[in-house]
């Protein structure tokens, strides 16, 4: 799946569209999605910290799209594990994901969430059901 095709899929998915996801990269080696900071994703106001569920959703979404970009098929999430390393604070958020295994029953991907700096703020791995 190329960048333009992935961007079209994001627009058609209401939740992904609501997140405001933009595709920075999409090819067989992985995907990179960018999300602008918005007040609606904050769970703590002072200092503003992104809700952990939104962080998990970014990992889940990027993992699924990484499987598709690598030529696999994925309909939904079978399982997911998230590690939160540091709070995600204001600023543009990036999530990078790559497929680890393309399978007939389950495909697996890993993803890392970044803020403005080079250190990952969260990471995760998910398994995805085929259609």
UniProtKB/TrEMBL annotation:
Keywords: Hydrolase. One of its GO terms (cellular component) is cytosol. Pfam families: 4HBT (PF03061). The keyword Hydrolase applies. One of its GO terms (molecular function) is 1,4-dihydroxy-2-naphthoyl-CoA thioesterase activity. It comes from the Bacteria. Gene3D superfamilies: Hotdog Thioesterase. SUPFAM superfamilies: Thioesterase/thiol ester dehydrase-isomerase. Residues 49-118 form the Thioesterase domain. InterPro entries: HotDog_dom_sf, PAAI_dom, Thioestr_dom. Belongs to the thioesterase PaaI family. This is PaaI family thioesterase. It comes from Neoroseomonas eburnea.
């Amino acid at each position: 799946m190329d960048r333009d095709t992935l961007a079209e899929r994001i627009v058609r998915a209401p939740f992904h569209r609501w997140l405001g996801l933009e595709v920075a990269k999409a090819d067989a080696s992985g995907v990179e999605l960018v999300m602008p900071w918005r007040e609606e994703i904050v769970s703590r106001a002072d200092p503003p910290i992104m809700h952990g569920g939104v962080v998990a959703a970014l990992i889940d979404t990027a993992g699924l799209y990484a499987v598709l970009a690598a030529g696999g098929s994925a309909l939904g999430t079978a399982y997911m594990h998230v590690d939160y390393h540091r709070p995600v604070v204001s600023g543009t958020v990036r999530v990078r994901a790559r497929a680890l295994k393309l399978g007939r029953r389950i495909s697996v991907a890993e993803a890392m969430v970044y803020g403005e700096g080079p250190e990952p703020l969260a990471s995760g791995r998910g398994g995805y059901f085929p259609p």
